[in-house]
Write a structure and sequence with these properties.
By secondary structure, the protein is an alpha+beta fold. About 30% of the residues lie in helices and about 25% in strands. The longest helix has 21 residues, at about 50-70.
């Protein structure tokens, strides 16, 4: 698909390119510490730009896509825990990023008044987007914005001190002068693009931050633990609940379990096989009366490995490999 997108971009003028900022704000009645899913709203802001910047960001989109086309970068379906970071990942637009998809499905279609004061949205700036579109073609790019990329000259000297001093070399005076005004540093990078209902992801971590997947991971992790509780094969499973709140790394592993076909059908025979393997490999897997016994974080980690099929044996060499990733191959 990327070669086709690049071919179409070659037929489109830079004047069909527009820059937008995206802000993320807590919904009314929520705050950053609220323990609820979808507690944020995303809002789109149009920005008037000069022809020079328009040309630059248009070329940026073509260069980023062209790079992966030239390199023939492998394209794989997105997985929470993946094998190879040097791939382009695809992610189909789904309901589990509903809040962010409102930007794509609804807000881009509205007539938006261009912002004229960057300071009004500085504290909530989340990402920027390039929209390249005409009647027959529409491409969106997204890039995460870091707080350090934005500089707003504010009068903070009322108490006799400045929070930050910003200076630049003037092309007229050739001197370093105080910066006055508002500025944003736009990375010459694109984290992902959206085209015909699919994201094409160049930076997995930034993509997950942009669309708020990290929040979704936590919610899914809680659902997985609740399902495990109903099966009643883990003693002291409350330790999982505690770790979910303080250790985000556990979220992905629990989400990975949800993708396993045997996730809701753990049997005593399966637990026996796990214990047999643990004994052979001298792993301290605590099992009592066909139940995993959890005494602490180390027990949780080991149980997660077994539930995720972490231990994989090669059919060719017979060697055993450890990995949370992997895809089941169709015969």
């Amino acid at each position: 698909m990327l070669p086709e997108i690049l071919e179409q971009l070659a037929e489109i003028p830079a004047t069909d390119c527009q820059l937008y900022f995206i802000t993320r704000v807590c919904k009314e009645g929520q705050n950053k510490r609220s323990k609820v899913l979808n507690r944020y709203d995303f809002k789109l802001h149009r920005v008037d730009i000069s022809p020079e910047i328009q040309e630059l960001i248009f070329d940026l989109a073509k260069e980023k896509i062209g790079y992966h086309v030239t390199k023939e970068t492998p394209i794989e379906e997105y997985a929470v825990i993946g094998d190879d970071p040097k791939t382009v990942l695809t992610y189909h637009a789904e309901n589990n990023i509903k809040s962010f998809m409102d930007v794509i499905n609804n807000q881009f279609g509205k007539e938006l008044t261009a912002i004229t004061d960057l300071s009004e949205i500085t504290s909530d700036l989340w990402a920027y987007s390039i929209r390249i579109a005409n009647e027959e073609f529409k491409l969106l790019t997204f890039t995460k914005i870091a707080p350090t990329q934005v500089v707003v000259d504010e009068d903070d000297n009322k108490k006799g001190m400045l929070k930050k001093m910003m200076a630049l070399f003037s092309t007229d005076s050739k001197k370093l002068e105080m910066f006055k005004g508002e500025a944003i540093s736009i990375d010459k990078n694109i984290d992902c693009i959206f085209y015909t209902d699919n994201f094409y992801i160049f930076s997995k971590n930034n993509f997950e931050r942009i669309v708020n997947l990290e929040e979704e991971f936590k919610a899914t992790a809680k659902e997985v633990v609740n399902t495990l509780k109903k099966q009643n094969f883990i003693e002291n499973i409350e330790v999982f609940d505690e770790l979910i709140e303080i250790n985000p790394a556990i979220h992905r592993k629990l989400v990975r379990i949800a993708k396993h076909p045997a996730f809701t059908q753990i049997t005593p025979e399966m637990i026996d096989k796990m214990k047999e393997y643990a004994n052979k490999d001298k792993l301290d897997l605590n099992v009592n009366d066909n139940k995993f016994v959890i005494n602490g974080k180390d027990d949780v980690e080991l149980v997660l490995r077994f539930l995720c099929d972490y231990y994989k044996e090669s059919t060719i060499t017979g060697k055993v490999y450890g990995s949370y990733s992997g895809r089941e191959l169709e015969p």
